[in-house]
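#structure-requests
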Amino acid sequence: MADDTITLATGLEFPEGPIWMSDGSVVLVEIKRGTLTRVDGDGSVDVVADCGGGPNGAAIGPDGKVYVCNNGGFQWTEANGLTLPGEQPADYAGGSIQRVDIDTGEVEDLYTHVGEHRLCGPNDLVFDETGGFWFTDHGKNRARTRDRGGLYYAKSDGSEVREVVHPLLAPNGVGLSPAGDRLYVAETYEGRLYTWDLSGPGEIAGYFGPGHRGEVLADPEGGPLFDSLAVDRDGNVCVATIRNGGITVIALDGAHRHVSFDDPLTTNICFGGADLSTAFVTLSGTGRLVSQRWDTPGLPLAYNR
């Protein structure tokens, strides 16, 4: 972990999904607590909304509301000073895409199904400039079975959601290139970053059906587990990496380097500050939000507030 790393908040219950806000605060989820939470610049922590289940990835939509991938929750354990997510919990009721009014705390379920199929464990999402969004469903693990996940595209007004690629093995972070013409998805257990060329909003170039696997952009050695991600202004994909704790920065040619943090469950990153040159990183095992200056400014997202 770099010498300039600043701890912004502690005692968070498995933080994820950070969003930098123009007022200098960071809105994030606490998966174990089941909340959408704001961390102010002075380090104070306030609950914005009670989402229930397991809120995971989060992003601002075109209406200024926060869209949340709710994975339905986990069983939880504590080991060696770390909080660890596990299998599907006894009170699991399914996953959903939620829309949260951060001014009132109102939470609504936008999508719970894709056709006849229940969403199992939505994980991360990214908006394009048309107001639609890509999201991953990681699935859930049980004692002897595991769901097969997928990649989906939806409209923010609740009018349409469709399965685009299925199956994928535990798809997690999802992001778009600076031009919006390439999509990136990190698969957790394979530790691979996949990419697809896009021909339009929600459309994969040369699409031939749900079995349309992407190109492998990076497959680092050493057995990393990939989590959520963000893209910087140069198009590098910054993937939160579990097990060896840090951010794996992957260039367009697949070359990669690792930025270490002192938590093996480093789960997500976003960029903020006036020049988007500050990285905000969730260290979930130890319940912290930290920041540090980043070499390359982050890519501006489609929507912010």
